[in-house]
Amino acid sequence: MSSTVTVRKIGNSHGVILPKAELEQLGVSEGDKLFVVHTPDGIRLTPYDQRFARQVEAAEDFMNKYRDVFRELAK
Length: 75
Hints:
Number of domains: 1
Number of helices: 3
Distance between the termini: 42 Å
Number of strands: 4
Oligomer: single chain
Strand content: 25-35%
Order of helices and strands: EEHEEHH
């Protein structure tokens, strides 16, 4: 199933209003947080998971710490 949404000005920002069906499918409601995941095909919205957020932050810290090693391995 697909649907369209419209980008609207909300204060000094812009946003989209998600239809009720999409909110129910995500299992979220007003006030809940969402992850915005960038993919090669666009973006993906997923419910916010604090445990997963901490794991992602730890992975980013690790990759930043060993950036030079990863560059060498990529050659």
